[in-house]
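USER: If only I could read backbone structure tokens as easily as an amino acid sequence. It would mean a lot if you studied the pair and described how this chain folds. Here is the record:
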Amino acid sequence: MHGQPGPTEDERRWNSVVSRDRSADGRFFFAVQTTGVYCRPSCASRLARRENVSFFETTEDAERAGYRPCKRCRPDQSSANVDAVALMLKACRFIEASEETPPLAQLATLVGLSPEYFQKTFRKLIGVSPKEYAIALRSEKVRQELATAESVTSAMYSAGFNSSGRFYDNAEKILGMTPTAYRAGGRGMNITVTVSTSWIGTVLVATTARGVCSVLLGDDARSVLTDIRSRFPLATFRDADSNSEQLVSAVIASIADPFTHSTVPLDVQGTAFQHLVWNALRQIPPGETRSYAQLAASIGRPASTRAVATACAANPAAVIVPCHRVVRADGSLSGYRWGVERKEQLLAREREQSETVDQIRSRGVVR
């Protein structure tokens, strides 16, 4: 008497998908016809109907069949990289829950890595160092508290500073001005303003003693001056002086040639999340684009595509923080606060200059 035949290979694979078996990751991938994506067996997404699922040996096979990688389980990345992202996000959550900035050694021990390797991996995947991430979080909380607290002192303690000396030593780094000035809506803040012209139109560069706080594009001087005054309604505006001329020149040079090596210091104010996005934007090479989903994944927040788009829209430094290099998933252009036509022109110019650089390199002139 013959026994029942064992399960087929596809049946075993389906059982692994149903049980979200992590040990099956890397052995095969499954794709869902109705969504057009392929996943790891352990993917936590909602289970698809069996009749809509097919299996592939490799990611290349799945993509040749027309499927794209799942944004949740990221099957096109190595398991080691996915695990590293999970560890770095664990460290982020720990920093966010801590009243004081955790020491580097404590964070490294938390995720089971050496301090040196943890620091390097955190910066690579999150876009800033652990200390910079903690400072950005503290900055956001201080701003929120100063807006509603009865006094600077109560805001200081609510934001987690246990020492007034420590708070005032770091206040201008965090706020870009004194706490009293910030609480008064920025009154007393000194901003130098330069309006210039470039191939992309009128450009306004606003600087503080710490760096560039805003770069605005427009059709004429009046529109950009109105814009900057609405952003800093209580600040004192001054004409550019010798201290700001170098910054302005660097900004204009970067607009003219995005391949110009320039490290323009910024003094832009934003939330911790916005700073993560803006730092990631500055890592996109000229001539290349990223989708909002890719940008979200690059900062370890794959589920925050809409928040990433909002942070791009809030970018205060046009071109220098290149939010114009972010497009829709299908490659089409999305909105741009300085006009979609300008976005198209910026990308077209960068592509042309990128092709020129590639041609020079191919001739061996540049290495």
In short: The radius of gyration is 25 Å. Strands lie at 29-32, 37-39, 53-56, 68-69, 190-198, 201-208, 211-218, 236-239, 290-291, 326-327.
